[in-house]
Amino acid sequence: MPESLSADLVALRDRIRTFVEADLRPLEVGLEEEGPVPEEIRRRVRERSKELGLFGMTQPVEFGGTEAGPLAMTVARETLAAGNTPLSRFVFGPDPGLLRRLEGDLRTRYREPVLAGEKTWSFAFTEPSGPGAPAKPTWAVRDGDHLVVTGRKSFVTGGATADFYATLVNVDESAEGPAGTAMLLIDRALSGVKVDRAFRSMEGGGHVEISFDAVRVPMTNLLGKIGEGMPRAMGNIGEERLGSAASACGIALWTVEYVTKHITGGHRAGGRLGDREGVRLRYADLRIETYAARATLYRTARLAESGVDVMNEGAAAKVFCTEVASRVVDGALQLVGGQALIQGHPLESLYRRVRSMRLAAGASDILRLGVARGIIEFDAGTV
Length: 383
Ligand SMILES: Cc1cc2nc3c(=O)[nH]c(=O)nc-3n(C[C@H](O)[C@H](O)[C@H](O)COP(=O)(O)OP(=O)(O)OC[C@H]3O[C@@H](n4cnc5c(N)ncnc54)[C@H](O)[C@@H]3O)c2cc1C
Prior knowledge:
It is built from ten helices and eight strands. The model has no long low-confidence stretch (mean pLDDT 94). Strands 1, 2, 3, 4, 5, 6, 7 and 8 form an eight-stranded mixed sheet that branches. It is of the alpha+beta class. It has helices at 7-28, 39-51, 70-83, 104-115, 229-233, 237-264, 277-305, 311-336, 346-357, 364-376; strands at 121-124, 139-143, 146-157, 164-171, 180-187, 193-200, 206-218, 222-223. 45% of the residues lie in helices and 16% in strands. The chain folds into three domains: 7-98, Butyryl-Coa Dehydrogenase, subunit A, domain 1, CATH 1.10.540; 121-232, Butyryl-CoA Dehydrogenase, subunit A, domain 2; 236-376, Butyryl-CoA Dehydrogenase, subunit A, domain 3 (Up-down Bundle), CATH 1.20.140.10. β4 and β5 (180-187) form a beta hairpin. The structure holds flavin-adenine dinucleotide. Flavin-adenine dinucleotide binds at residues 122-126, 129, 155-157, 201, 205, 356, 359-360, 362-363, 365-366, 369.
C-alpha cells in the first residue's frame, strides 16, 4: 500500500476503523439522509471520540489537545472518510485554523471560546459573482481606531449561526496609511452586518451571503497588520488542502470496496459482473487511480510532516485527489447501474459531495495556476 505506516499510525487507523463500525454505525440508524443530527447523538460521538484520543487531535496542546501532525491527521481523515459515515464531522474538536496564532485579547475573546465549543466562526473570503455582483471587492476605510467595512461575501459556510466572521477586506489608501489586504474578525451582532440569503449547495452544506454596510470594526480585531490579509487567510492552506485530499482518497477507498462487492456478487444476467473482461478493465482503472492518488497524498503528508511548506504540493494533491475521487465515484456509478442514481443511494450522495470538492477550498483550475506560478515565478516546491 502507498501509505507504509509506522506501527503507531497503523494502530491509529485501526482504532478509527473500529470506532466507525462499533460506535458510529449504531448511532447512524434512523438518521435522516443529510438531515440534522440530534445533539444527544453528537454528544455521544464527542465523548467516545475523547475516550479514544481522537477529539483533541485538531486542538493545541496548551488547550489539552494533542495537536497531531499532518501525517497522523491524514491517516485519521482518510480513514474516517473511508468509513463513509455522516457522523464523521463531529469526531474532531473545533480546529482553530487561522485563529491558531491569535494573541492577547483576541485569544481570550475569540480563540479560547472557539476551542471550547462556546463560539463558532466562519471564513468569509469569496466575493459574490455573476449578475448584480458588486463592482468592488469588500473594502474598508480607516477611521481613527476603527475600520469601516462595506461589501458582500458569498458562500460563507455555517454563516447563518456563526458568532463571527474571519473576513478578508481590502483597506483603501488614506492619509493614515497605504492600501493593503487585511483579515478582520467581524461579530455577526455588529450594526450593519446582515445575512441576506441562506442557501444549500448540492453536497448538503449550508452557506450564506452576507452584506456589510459601513460596519465599524475596532482595529484591535485585525489579525496581524494591514497588508498581511492574504498571507493570513492562506496561513495553513497547504495543510487544509491536504485535508481535502485525504477525505477525497477516503471516499475513493470506500467506493472501490463498494464496487468490489457489487461486481463479485451475483448479477441478474447470471454469473458475476466482475467475470466480464470489459468490467474488469473499468474496475482496474478505479483501483489504479485510487492507488496513484493515495501515493500522492502520503508523499505530500510526509513532506508536510518533515516541516516543508507544502503550498504547491498541497494544491497539487488537492487537485489530483479530488479529481480522481470524482472519476472513481462516477465510474462506480456506471458499473453499479441505475440503482446508484436513486436518491439516498450512497453513491448518489458521494457523487454530489466529490463534485463540490473540486470548487471548495480553491477551484481546481485556480490551484493549477498557483502550481504553475510557484514553479515559473518562484522556482518553489517539488511538483
Ligand atoms: C462546498 C463549498 C463550501 C465553500 N465554503 C466557503 C467558505 O466557507 N468561505 C468562503 O469564503 N468561500 C467558500 N466557498 C467558495 C469557494 O471558495 C469558491 O466557490 C471557489 O473559490 C471558486 O470561486 P468562485 O465560486 O467565486 O468562482 P470564480 O472565481 O468565479 O471561478 C469560476 C471558474 O472560473 C474559472 N476561472 C476563474 N478565474 C480563472 C483564471 N484566472 N484562469 C482560469 N480559469 C479561471 C475556474 O474554472 C473557476 O472554477 C465554498 C464553496 C463550496 C463549493
